[in-house]
Amino acid sequence: MAKVSVIVPVYNVEKYLDKCLSSLVEQTLSEIEIIIVDDGSTDSSPEIIKRYAEKYENIISVQKENGGLSDARNFGLPFASGEYIGYLDSDDYIDSEMYEVMYEKAKSTNSDIVECNLHHTYQNYEDTEIMTKLYAPGELLTHGRCIVWNKIYNRKWLLDTGVMFQFRSKFEDLDFYSRIVPFIRKYEYVDIAPIHYVQRSGSLNYDAGEDTIQIFGILHRLISYYKERGIYSQFEKELEHFCARNLLCNIFERMCRISNKKIRKIALKRNWNELNEMFPNWRKNPILLEEKSRKATFMKLQGSVVYRTCCAVFPIFFRIKDIVTVHRKL
């Protein structure tokens, strides 16, 4: 049995795939299993996968019809035999010691999840993202990093939770992470930043599009998920803060970047209405009231008038910010 199984969904990433797979086969952890899921690629990605699979015995190559990132991750899981599961996006790459260091930490601490830090990798520049260490499920829900590919998961524990990625979800990492948090018994960290999260050219100036409104359905289903399992009252304040923080910060920023002015206006209005319908008293959330961060300050300032003003001003602000950032870093 492998120590770590890494699931790599692949869809039309011929430009990045070689570097990703090279970084996996060069891992210092010898007992590693690499599961490559070709999600219906139409470029040269299948040929690259075949070349690696023929050369390395620890690679399992599987193919499926295109179903998106979430579907590919779910498809690869039954093929995994490792004690721990890792997910790596096929346009990113990692340092050679990553899975050995994370596995040793997981085994020595008997952890369900171990997390590492990461680099944002631009064409000629990298910056490092260091996460504050949080351990309690409530803290992880409100302030943890929702990304799934900077972590390894105890496979037996993961399967026992029954949590899977939602099919064709725009926010698959956020949804997966927030559903799995209540089951966490032991959470640990390593101090290294071995992941290079590649920022594709122009990716900062993204057009969020209409699919950003998927977040509302995800959050409603998340609340139902907690209620159905009888744990809503245990995490009510954390869920309220989680929803408010996402809608007023991350999602607000995405919606401000929607290029179609009419769609952007509708999305931003719905964003405010959905938050206040879900949690009418979110401004009195004790976690928010105690928080001192810039995001918390922005949230505390929000009322109907201030929010409408922000909806008019911030799309211009983010457009200028993206242009400046792209010229500096790409």
Describe this entry's structure for a reader.
With 330 residues, the chain is an alpha/beta fold. Helices cover 49% and strands 14% of the residues. The protein is built from 13 helices and 11 strands. It has helices spanning 14-25, 45-55, 69-76, 98-109, 137-143, 155-161, 172-180, 214-228, 232-256, 261-278, 286-290, 294-301, 304-329; strands at 4-10, 32-38, 59-63, 84-87, 93-94, 113-115, 118-121, 126-129, 151-154, 187-189, 195-198. Strands 3-2-1-4-9-6-10 form a 7-stranded mixed beta sheet, with helices on both faces. A 4-stranded mixed beta sheet has the order 5-11-7-8.
Strand content: 5-15%
Low-confidence stretches: 202-207
Using only C-alpha atoms, the radius of gyration works out to: 20 Å
Q: Termini distance?
A: 42 Å
Derived from helix and strand composition plus strand pairing, the structural class reads: alpha/beta
Helix-strand topology string? EHEHEHEEHEEEHEHHEEHHHHHH
What attributes does this structure have?
alpha/beta; seven-stranded mixed beta sheet; four-stranded mixed beta sheet
Describe the structure concisely for a colleague.
49% of the residues lie in helices and 14% in strands. It is an alpha/beta fold and 330 residues long. The longest helix has 26 residues, at 304-329.
Task: Annotate the secondary structure layout.
Blueprint: E1 4-10, H1 14-25, E2 32-38, H2 45-55, E3 59-63, H3 69-76, E4 84-87, E5 93-94, H4 98-109, E6 113-115, E7 118-121, E8 126-129, H5 137-143, E9 151-154, H6 155-161, H7 172-180, E10 187-189, E11 195-198, H8 214-228, H9 232-256, H10 261-278, H11 286-290, H12 294-301, H13 304-329
Parallel strand pairs: 1-2, 1-4, 2-3, 6-10, 7-11
Antiparallel strand pairs: 4-9, 5-11, 6-9, 7-8
